[in-house]
Every structure is written in structure tokens, then in C-alpha cells.
From TrEMBL:
One of its GO terms (molecular function) is rRNA binding. One of its GO terms (biological process) is maturation of LSU-rRNA from tricistronic rRNA transcript (SSU-rRNA, 5.8S rRNA, LSU-rRNA). GO terms for cellular component: nucleolus. This is Ribosome production factor 2 homolog. Signal peptide: none annotated. Residues 5-206 form the Brix domain. It comes from Takifugu rubripes.
């Protein structure tokens, strides 16, 4: 049984004020475990320091922020498998609005976000598919058995359009609609990011498949003679032995009862002659 995934938030050797604000707003979310360190490392050239800190802090996700002349305002989002780098995707920040820039009431701490993805690239392009999987791992939060309806108020929306990724954060408001079902409006609360895809480091298909393998103990055992239809209705097949209808207990009626004398004559002498039956 695995614990919930936690993330390392790391600063590179050179960072800008924009990168610091982005990391600060992401850490303020209750979806990650912050581990901010200022470390001179380049994940795409050498990932040993990431793997070392991952093993030390038991974190399987990381977000690395850096700034350079060649790659300004740079974010690297990645995850690890067995304390080795599995996927890394580099994103450049083109526009940013922080939590303090947007004056609106925020969601309470611990709110589990709803993730929405818009754009054909998230379903067709391999790099965008991995990015979608990474974002789900990073923002999904802890696993819970149930969520109350009023707690569904935080929405994270990711849009892929013209080679860019737009991240927006909303709060859902329940308004009066004149009926039992409320009218829902979205209010932007921040942060908002306009990102561009840069470098990628994706795991091979074999390693990616190995990372998704589940142990046999967690696999649900198939139950015999049980099936489900398209609507989720459960059907069961019951096997019974062949029934002997002669021993079937039926409803007792007075008209079907046998008289004691007739039953005795019928069993001993057989059916009575016609004359005798008329005479009697």
C-alpha cells in the first residue's frame, strides 16, 4: 500500500523574482509537500541530485525553478520511479498573475481540486499526454473515499492552444436559480500561468509500463458467475440441482383431498365396477 504522492519544490542556482513568486503560490496550495532548496543543478544534464533528494525526502514528484539568459523563467515538472527520474517536462513562463494580484475570496485550505483539460493535443500528442498525466499526479491531492458536494469548489483548468498551455484557477459559486438545482458560476482566484513547452525527457514505453504495474495483492479478484451491464447493474448466475416436481409442495385445498375409504379401496382392490359405483 503506497502513501500519497508528495512533491519537492526546488530553486536553482539562479532564479528570478517571477520564479520565486510562482513557487511561493504553488507551495501555498495544500496539494504538495514543500521542500524548497537552492541548489546549483541542471536536471536535464545531471539528475543525480534530484534522485538523492527524492530518496532522502521520500518524494516522487518535483518542481524545479530556474532562470537563465538562454531559458528565462523556466519550470521543470517531473516525477520519479524507484528513486530514478521517469519523466521531465520543461515549461517556460510567458505570463503570470499571482494570488495577491487577483482580489477574490480564496478556497479554504485542504480543498481537493477538480481538474479540467481542454484541447485536442492532450488526446493526440504524446508529449501533451505525458504532461497531462504529470499535472494530474501533481495536483490531484490525497486519495479520499468521499467528497461532500459543497466541497467541490476549486477548479483547475488547463487549455492547450496554438502550442501554449494556459493554466487558470477558479472557485465555483452556487447561485440561486429558482429551482432545487443551483446555478454555477466560476470566479477566477489565481494563480494563472501562460506556459510554453520547451524540452522533454520521457520514459520509454517499457519503463512507463513497468511503473504502472500493480502487485497481485492489489488486483481485484474476478468473481465467477457475476456480470454487469452497460448501466452498472449487477447480475448473478445461480446454479441449482435438477428439481423433482413430484415432491413439490403446493397449496393445500379441500377439494383435492382424498377420502380415507376411497383411498384404501383404490390402493387394495383397484377401481370399483360401474354398477357398484352407481349403487353407492
Amino acid at each position: 500500500v503506497e502513501d500519497g504522492k508528495s512533491a519537492m519544490i526546488m530553486k536553482g542556482g539562479n532564479t528570478s523574482q517571477l520564479i520565486s513568486n510562482v513557487l511561493k503560490d504553488i507551495v501555498s496550495k495544500p496539494i504538495v509537500l514543500e521542500t524548497i532548496r537552492k541548489n546549483i543543478t541542471r536536471p536535464f544534464e545531471d539528475s543525480t541530485s534530484l534522485e538523492f533528494f527524492s530518496k532522502k525526502t521520500d518524494c516522487s514528484l518535483f518542481l524545479f525553478g530556474s532562470h537563465s539568459k538562454k531559458r528565462p523563467d523556466n519550470l521543470i515538472l517531473g516525477r520519479l520511479f524507484d528513486f530514478h527520474v521517469l519523466d521531465m517536462i520543461e515549461l517556460g513562463i510567458e505570463k503570470f498573475s499571482s494570488l495577491s494580484d487577483i482580489k477574490a475570496s480564496k478556497c479554504p485550505e485542504g480543498t481537493k481540486p477538480m481538474l479540467l483539460f481542454a484541447g485536442e493535443a492532450f488526446d493526440t500528442d504524446n508529449e501533451h499526454k505525458r504532461l497531462k498525466s504529470l499535472l494530474i499526479d501533481f495536483f490531484r491531492g490525497p486519495n479520499v473515499s468521499a467528497v461532500r458536494l459543497a466541497g467541490l469548489e476549486h477548479v483547475l483548468h488547463f487549455t492547450s492552444l496554438d502550442g501554449k498551455i494556459y493554466m487558470r484557477s477558479y472557485r465555483s459559486l452556487l447561485k440561486k436559480s429558482g429551482c432545487r438545482t443551483p446555478r454555477i458560476e466560476l470566479e477566477e482566484i489565481g494563480p494563472s500561468l501562460d506556459l510554453v513547452l520547451r524540452r522533454t525527457h520521457l520514459a520509454s514505453d517499457d519503463l512507463y509500463k513497468l511503473a504502472h504495474r500493480k502487485p497481485k495483492a492489489l488486483k481485484a479478484k474476478k468473481k465467477k458467475n457475476i456480470s454487469h451491464d452497460a448501466f452498472g447493474t449487477k447480475f448473478g448466475r445461480v446454479h441449482m440441482q435438477k428439481q423433482d416436481l413430484s415432491k413439490l409442495r403446493t397449496r393445500k385445498m379441500k377439494g383435492l383431498r382424498k377420502r380415507k375409504g376411497r383411498a384404501a379401496v383404490g390402493e387394495q382392490d383397484g377401481p370399483a365396477p360401474k354398477e357398484a359405483r352407481v349403487a353407492s
